[in-house]
Amino acid sequence: MSLAIVHSRAKLGIQAPPVMVEVHLANGMPSLTLVGLPETAVRESKDRVRSALQNARLEFPSLKRITINLAPADLPKEGGRFDLAIALGLLAASGQIPPASLERCEVLGELALSGELRPVQGVLPAALACRDNQRTLLLPRANAAEAALVQGVEIIAAEHLLELCEHLRGEQLLPAVAAGSRPPPAGNLPDLRDVQGQAQAKRALIVAAAGSHNLLLFGPPGTGKTLLASRLPGILPALEEEQALEVAAIQSVCGRGMLQHWPTRPFRAPHHGASAAALVGGGSQPRPGEISQAHHGVLFLDELPEFDRKVLEMLREPMESGEIHIARAREQLTFPARFQLIAAMNPCPCGYQGDPSGRCRCSPEQVERYRSKLSGPLLDRIDLHLAMHNEAFSLTGQTVGKPDSAEAGAAVAAARQRQLDRQGCLNAYLDLSDVRQHCALPTADASWLEKAVAQLGLSRRASHRVLKVARTLADLEQQPVIGRPHLAEALQYRQLDRQPLDRLPLS
């Protein structure tokens, strides 16, 4: 047979669109033509394939006119992921392996000049798509563990091209890789009990974890802002199966292999010098940024005002929608970005405003200029603002901090389960109609909240977020109805808003 078709998968964002590798051998002037919008690495595959076949002592049809088409023709193809599919297509078209053996298979893999199979990026999305199409996935052995995260897909892995040829001929069958296998669970995560004192900050962290609320910590250096933020993954519930696969798929296309510490939520902490493309994604071939790599996890931005303001403003839409849209001239991609933002900052450029030692020398204009790097719309989208202060240092009589991560994690898990049972989502993701339904207040409390919101000068968005935080506080206390103490505490977490909050009566 002079025509062979091999199924493969491209990498487009975190998607794996199907690609048909069509190989045709014809009589005529010997040549090899590769079409189908291939990038440079794909065009070079014909040389890798020729050397791999010859070094594996397989016949390369060099006396034929060879045409290789990567369909669909309008989909960009990149990388060496099509090497193996092209090689198998040439072998099938020249009759060295039965073409029928490739009909129910999808093929991924890069070829070394010796014929060995090298791993490629983005295998997990391809494995998910292969499972949905009920095909067998042929790939390098180095990618087998990553593809095996997907249940219900048949995986055949090999280390050399000859092994796959013998398998497809039925001469030496390769064993199927056990799908659904999981990497070892995470070890001990940083524990909340390591944080001494800072009871109010730990309370705010638990509230943020319980409702997936965004949190901003501000205070002088050394108060434990970064230490506290690093303890958040230890009190969050483990990822569910589908969530873990989504996170692992993002890591796969970023070239980091399978999900580390399955099924712990990701914790990303980019440097404040990160560019817009690094934070939100992009590039000539768009790739997920830090916010997508923090999907279903935590994005920690330390020294928040030191980030470029234009970069921070790009966070506003994904914080609301849970996804980021990247537009290019020939394609538009959507990356998931349902992350929980934890940010930290100093109160002034030198960091010591309000310190009892009086060492801050920043003028009001400098402080205003420093804080103005954070826009009002961005601060509106952060549910909790908490000021942290230095506490007295003592090595004598020091006790373990309370609560620890196990205790806090149990309270967080119980509160989250109440939210899911009541409304099907966490409180931070309630839309306006859900807020009206699940955060309803008695008339007296509603009137009290309206006065407090007017006194603070809060926007409608910020006032709705106050209600969501109050709903989370009630869930932590297993209360079906939001009470005035919950509203008062939620309002206390708006400490960076324009007007100061006087002591409000609870009755």
UniProtKB/TrEMBL annotation:
The keyword ATP-binding applies. PROSITE patterns: MCM_2 (PS50051). Residues 289-391 form the MCM C-terminal AAA(+) ATPase domain. Pfam families: ChlI, Mg_chelatase, Mg_chelatase_C. Keywords: ATP-binding, Nucleotide-binding. GO terms for molecular function: ATP binding; DNA binding. Belongs to the Mg-chelatase subunits D/I family. ComM subfamily. This is Magnesium chelatase family protein.
